[in-house]
Design a protein that fits this description.
4 helices; two-stranded antiparallel ribbon; globular; alpha+beta
């Protein structure tokens, strides 16, 4: 008898500030919708945000995706990385520099994992609770989402405020 696979909620932050960023974010949504054993079930609107790192780069366009997946977390993350590569992402020249596409797995169910050793999976994403460009798009699709060890998305968003963030 076939074992029934569980559907696990996963939330992905999307960002781009190169090559018509809104188009890149839309393309990322369509690629996420095509992931194996995964369903795209919610998508936020787009937000314009000032860059977190060096300011001599274009504004970012950010969004969030809510998915249900049967993939284990490490495989899900590997799929996100392969989408980034397929879309032409290269490593930014500087930390928090300009990028074509950025897909961050921010929450995978209630899973909490270790520290950021060489490319290891860290859940929830370490910066999620202090980044309004992640929290506000997430709050559109999952305001009651619990970020393990941090709180509910709507409350975290209220706490950090919306400075420098503009809904499109």
């Amino acid at each position: 008898t076939a074992v029934a696979m569980r559907w696990i909620p996963a939330y992905v932050a999307i960002g781009s500030n190169l090559s018509d960023p809104a188009v890149q974010v839309e393309l990322a949504f369509s690629r996420l919708a095509g992931l194996p054993d995964t369903r795209l079930v919610a998508r936020s609107g787009l937000f314009r945000a000032r860059p977190m790192g060096p300011q001599d780069q274009p504004d970012f366009i950010n969004a969030a995706a809510g998915l249900l997946t049967q993939l284990p977390p490490t495989e899900f993350l590997a799929q996100l990385k392969s989408i980034e590569q397929a879309m032409g992402r290269t490593a930014p020249a500087v930390r928090w520099g300009a990028r074509l596409i950025d897909l961050d797995l921010v929450v995978y169910s209630t899973l909490v994992t270790g520290t950021a050793q060489a490319g290891g999976l860290v859940l929830p994403h370490p910066g999620v609770h202090e980044r309004n460009f992640v929290l506000y798009p997430l709050a559109q699709i999952a305001p009651d989402l619990w970020v393990p060890g941090r709180g509910h998305v709507a409350e975290l968003a209220r706490r950090v405020g919306s400075a420098g963030l503009q809904p499109l």
